[in-house]
Design the sequence.
């Protein structure tokens, strides 16, 4: 008997040791992985404060004479900068404006359509739901020629919606609002008990009143997730914006950052780094603070069923 | 339960009748909308944007149906969404499909109606025929004027871009005639002597007179002649006749081509049937790079999904331990790549992996004395793309795997432990199969995403390094979609080819569509949609 309990306690202590050992190993692996994950970010932070500004001259992670020179150049406050005045402040405003407006409008479109799909039964409903998914498979990049011609022609008739306007770009983004998000929103709506609608019905409320007063407040969590994801998606788009906008002052931040890569990219490295950091930080903060909700939203749509 | 609240308008109206006011507002708004649509369509038609007019017309009709018919009530909730969907998604797709069957592209940008007048504008200088004797004048600005005498002895003054008018020596601004009847001077101009005029290099290229009226060009030192229209279009036979030698040009796929293979520019847009698809499959010049591109197009997403999933899953398993310290902060640090807008990350990596100046190669050179040329060697360029994508993609896989891991009940593992299963057996026979059920559809979605991952391929090194000898711009890391983009938007001196680009787009659509349909079957989304109906 005693020998057995001895063996048992030895086993336990060795298990405890094993456990500690395994955690230590895993912590080391974690540190290596974290190095892999954040190295580019650290490097770009360093580059943004390194006034030598070229890719070739940035040799250490801690810049020897750190300064805000690159940020001044980025916001057009360095008259001696050899690549001219960069209106990055303008670009940021443009990005926030375009992404903000298209997010709000597309949320409205998505939510109302999803409400109809979830709460009403009509002919062609299933076909439409399937079609929405299948149409989105067509890579919209491939339709760029058509979209360009379309916006050009619209602009000939209504100049405020034409090429090089933010309104034109926003309308193109809205074309994608009848997409995957409708499924996501409909899935969420389906989980809201219909008793709520019925109670409204009994009181003689119209569909609109039920939607606006009863359902919409319940949708807040999913609205936040879809809104943030759609904002980030639009904010990060460069290809449509690049094709449709051709005036430097109309650029969104991503289009602006992308043009840094053309010609002598290694010479513009420092200023690009400053711009990259300013462009990425707000999104990083949003993600890191809301990671649980966002992850939930991301996986929900597809894992379901 | 869905019976109770079916939302059919019939039932709805039993509860609430639409108020008169709301009906009135609806009709008024619809009338305003219709007025706007009609105004827009009129303008579109007057500018020649027929297709746009048709699309707007379709949307307008749809709006009227939706907002007038009570049966269409549910569609009112998505009318704007449908409008945008038709205008910016469906119409471009239809346009792309149409273009895929045409030769639209450089050399074929115009319609036939636009091209024929341009062809008929081309002129030639006839060898024989009516000739003028000429004398040249030049002013200080380097502009020329020509004094012309026709065989009948009539005299004219010709300037570029102005109508040729009869003139006589002694007219206002024109000097007195010399012994040959040519004015000695012209106001503002200086007369060039024969030698000077004959050696003037500009003179023979200048077209005097007004285009479309009468244009005269110098043929040789003693003669000038009227340019004649070279091509005449014959609508009856759909051919063009070359007036200078009588050669007939036939309409061959949007280009007027002679029997001997000579062509007239510009060509025009026309339907060429399956030619683009045939070219895509059979043209030897295209086949070389295309085989390379298609192969890589399947390797890239396959390796990307496998590598990101393997790393993400490994991390998820390693830290899927309630007792593990600093879990939260480790996770936050590890998802950082996922939180940076893709464009920014990709360009950062482009800098880091720069062959000459990049920090990665500096480190490699210090450590092992050599470093790959990431941007010029095809193999290393592909490796670089996969590495960058691993960095970009593993956090997502980590997040979805750890979510799925937590949903696997721990009793299964306990039962397996009692049965004496090793860790590997548990992973192989419990974790992996259960995990794949949950994340399988997401893996397919990730595959589809990477199949068309234009941003990474294009922003990193624009599909390069280039494949030597390719008929079109193509590189070793190009996937179909980046290749299509280059065909359509970046000709690199080889001419944009919207037709071919659209044809390849459609092929891509079918590939991706097939994978996606498979995914939907997998996830039961289809069935789910049908069930609820």
Sequence:
């Amino acid at each position: 008997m005693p020998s057995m309990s001895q063996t048992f306690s030895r086993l336990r202590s060795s298990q405890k040791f094993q456990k500690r050992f395994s955690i230590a190993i895993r912590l080391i692996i974690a540190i290596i992985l974290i190095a892999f994950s954040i190295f580019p970010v650290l490097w770009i932070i360093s580059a943004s404060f390194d006034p030598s500004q070229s890719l070739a001259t940035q040799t250490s992670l801690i810049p020897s004479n750190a300064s805000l020179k690159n940020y001044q150049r980025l916001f057009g406050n360095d008259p001696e900068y050899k690549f001219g005045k960069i209106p990055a402040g303008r670009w940021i405003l443009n990005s926030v404006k375009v992404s903000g407006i298209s997010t709000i409008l597309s949320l409205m479109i998505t939510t109302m359509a999803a409400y109809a799909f979830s709460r009403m039964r009509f002919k062609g409903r299933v076909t439409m739901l399937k079609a929405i998914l299948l149409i989105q498979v067509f890579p919209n990049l491939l339709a760029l020629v058509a979209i360009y011609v379309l916006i050009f022609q619209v602009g000939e008739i209504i100049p405020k919606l034409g090429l090089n306007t933010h309104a034109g770009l926003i309308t193109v983004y809205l074309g994608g609002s009848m997409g995957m998000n409708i499924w996501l929103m409909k899935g969420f709506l389906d989980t809201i008990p219909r008793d709520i609608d019925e109670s409204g019905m009994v009181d003689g409320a119209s569909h609109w009143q039920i939607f606006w007063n009863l359902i919409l407040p319940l949708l807040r969590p999913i609205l936040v997730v879809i809104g943030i994801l759609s904002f980030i998606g639009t904010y990060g788009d460069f290809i449509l914006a690049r094709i449709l906008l051709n005036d430097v002052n109309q650029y969104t931040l991503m289009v602006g950052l992308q043009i840094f890569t053309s010609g002598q990219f290694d010479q513009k490295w420092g200023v690009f780094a400053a711009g990259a950091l300013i462009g990425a930080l707000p999104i990083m903060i949003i993600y890191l603070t809301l990671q649980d909700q966002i992850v939930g939203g991301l996986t929900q749509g597809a894992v379901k069923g | 339960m869905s019976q109770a609240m079916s939302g059919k308008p019939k039932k709805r109206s039993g509860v609430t009748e639409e108020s008169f006011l709301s009906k009135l507002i609806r009709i008024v708004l619809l009338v305003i909308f219709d007025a706007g649509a009609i105004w827009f369509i009129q303008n579109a038609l007057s500018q020649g944007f027929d297709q746009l007019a048709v699309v707007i017309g379709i949307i307008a009709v749809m709006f009227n149906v939706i907002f007038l018919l009570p049966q269409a009530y549910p569609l009112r909730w998505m009318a704007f969404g449908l409008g945008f969907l038709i205008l910016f998604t469906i119409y471009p797709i239809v346009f792309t499909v149409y273009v895929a069957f045409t030769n639209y592209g450089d050399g074929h940008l115009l319609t036939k109606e636009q091209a024929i007048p341009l062809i008929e504008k081309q002129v030639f200088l006839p060898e024989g025929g009516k000739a003028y004797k000429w004398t040249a004048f030049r002013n200080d600005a380097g502009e020329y004027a020509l004094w012309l005498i026709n065989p009948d002895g009539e005299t004219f003054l010709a300037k570029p871009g102005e109508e040729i008018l009869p003139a006589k020596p002694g007219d206002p601004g024109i000097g007195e005639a010399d012994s040959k009847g040519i004015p000695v001077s012209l106001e503002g101009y200086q007369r060039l002597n024969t030698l000077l005029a004959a050696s003037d290099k500009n003179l023979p290229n200048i077209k005097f007179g007004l285009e479309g009226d009468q244009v005269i060009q110098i043929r040789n030192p003693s003669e000038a002649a009227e340019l004649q229209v070279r091509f005449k279009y014959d609508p009856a036979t759909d051919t063009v006749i070359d007036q200078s030698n009588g050669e007939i040009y036939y309409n061959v796929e949007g280009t007027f081509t002679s029997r001997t293979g000579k062509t007239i520019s510009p060509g025009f847009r026309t339907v060429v049937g399956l030619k683009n698809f045939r070219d895509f499959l059979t043209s030897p010049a295209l086949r070389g790079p295309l085989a390379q591109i298609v192969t890589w197009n399947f390797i890239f997403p396959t390796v990307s999904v496998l590598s990101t999933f393997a790393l993400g899953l490994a991390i998820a398993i390693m830290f899927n331990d309630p007792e593990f310290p600093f879990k939260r902060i480790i996770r936050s640090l590890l998802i950082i790549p996922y939180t940076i807008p893709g464009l920014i990350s990709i360009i950062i990596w482009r800098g880091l992996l720069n062959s000459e100046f990049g920090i990665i190669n500096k480190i490699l050179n210090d450590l092992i004395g050599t470093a790959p040329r990431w941007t010029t060697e095809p193999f290393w360029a592909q490796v670089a793309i996969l590495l960058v994508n691993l960095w970009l993609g593993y956090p997502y896989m980590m997040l979805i795997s750890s979510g799925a891991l937590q949903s696997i009940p721990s009793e299964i593992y306990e039962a397996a432990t009692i049965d004496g299963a090793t860790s590997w057996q548990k992973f192989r026979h419990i974790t992996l199969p259960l995990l794949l059920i949950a994340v399988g559809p997401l893996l397919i979605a990730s595959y589809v995403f990477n199949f068309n991952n234009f941003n990474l391929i294009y922003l990193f090194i624009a599909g390069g390094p280039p494949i030597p000898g390719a008929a079109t711009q193509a590189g070793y890391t190009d996937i179909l979609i980046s290749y299509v983009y280059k065909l359509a938007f970046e000709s690199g001196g080889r001419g944009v080819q919207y037709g071919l680009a659209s044809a390849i787009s459609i092929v891509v659509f079918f590939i991706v569509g097939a994978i996606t349909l498979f995914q939907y079957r997998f996830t039961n989304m289809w069935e789910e949609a049908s069930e609820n109906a």
In short: The mean pLDDT of chain B is 82. The longest strand of chain B covers residues 131-139. Residues 112-119+235-272 of chain B form one domain. DSSP finds 20 helices and 14 strands in chain B.
